[in-house]
Amino acid sequence: MSSSAKDHWQERSKAWTATAIQGISADDTFNQMIIAEAGIQAGEKILDLASGTGNPAVSIAHSMHGDGDVICADLTPLMLQTARQRANKLNLGIMSFAAADMAALPFDDGQFDAITCRFGIMFPEDKVGVAREAMRVLKPGGRVAYIVWGAYEENPPFHVSRRAVAKYFGTDEGPIPGRHSLSAPGTLRKILQEAGLAKVEERELRYKNRVDDIDDYVTRNLKRSFVRRN
Ligand SMILES: C[S@@+](CC[C@H](N)C(=O)[O-])C[C@H]1O[C@@H](n2cnc3c(N)ncnc32)[C@H](O)[C@@H]1O
After folding, report:
1. Assigned architecture for domain 3-225
2. In this structure, what DSSP letter does residue 175 have?
3. Is 25 left (phi over 0), alpha (psi -120 to 50) or beta?
């Protein structure tokens, strides 16, 4: 992991923690999707990688009603502080927290029933290596579910605000952000097959989110999308 990648997420964590949802999100659709895809059951031991401010880890722990073990892991300790606050607020005593690079996990082999990773595997350089590392810590027969963003053009919350800001300042919109780098159908499947996972399925999940407070939504989106440069 390069120190610039760490610095990048350290910087981003300020906006992410300032805009994090407390408790369970009013719209928990993505988290419920990954819980269903990973087939998570109460009583299991789950690792959530690149969990940021606790997604989907908090929703997973909430769904287990006190029976199980959920480890919420992220590269960036500041993100985890917010995840911990959310867990405390919801009395989720089955959650624990680990600052961890998903390329080199601080866990023994064969520990987890299932691993989740929501919008995280697009960022490390060696994605096959990261998937192999997840496999290493899975129990035999364990499951892993990754969720990645689809194409930039098909995700208006990202391109509408960037285009509006570029137009306002008379600047270029810039390159397509790295978060969309695994959007082409088959890309994630190929990574997981190369890593050696036994049975790989890739599915397109389409979702139109409901926005109740447009000012709050746009402000949050802008704060998360733009990094301060000194
Ligand atoms: C787009 S955020 C997603 C956070 C959360 N899963 C969510 O969906 O809200 C990406 C997260 O990946 C983390 N991250 C980036 N590279 C990582 C790595 N190599 N190992 C672990 N976490 C990483 C960042 O710190 C950040 O919290």
Report:
1. 3-Layer(aba) Sandwich (3.40)
2. S
3. beta
Q: How far apart are CA 96 and CA 47, in angstroms?
A: 10
| Probe residue for ligand 1, chosen from 84, 119, 126 as the CB with the greatest number of ligand atoms within 8 Å | 119
Ligand 1 mean position, distance from CA 67 (Å): 26
- Contact between 140 and 198 (Cβ < 8 Å): no
pTM: 0.92
Question: In this predicted model, which residue has the larger pLDDT, 49 or 1?
Answer: 49
3-state secondary structure of 3: helix
Q: How far is the CA of 170 from the centre of ligand 1 (A)?
A: 31
**Dist CA 53 CA 24 (whole Å):** 11
**Confidence band of 43 (pLDDT split at 50, 70, 90):** very high
* Residue ranges covered by each domain of the chain: 3-225
Percentage of the chain beyond pLDDT 70 is 97
pLDDT at residue 1, as a whole number: 65
